[in-house]
Amino acid sequence: MTDPTTYSAASPQDGINALAAAHRELTDLLEQLDGELSTSVGQWDDNARVAYQGAQLQWAASSKRQQEIVQRLVDVAEQS
Fold it and tell me: What percent of the chain has pLDDT over 90?
């Protein structure tokens, strides 16, 4: 039986890598969505367009925050 409390330096790095990959995937999907919708957004009614633009701003802020978190994790891991 293995001890689940055993520390492995690979485990935190694996977690950081997984978070970074998930962030890249999400960012790529949001960019793809924006590209697909960019031609039709102009045809939406004002409420829908404003709601979408608001969502985009939230996505951008969240994406920036996620990137900052991943970078801090990388920095901390490198100092360990």
Answer: 61
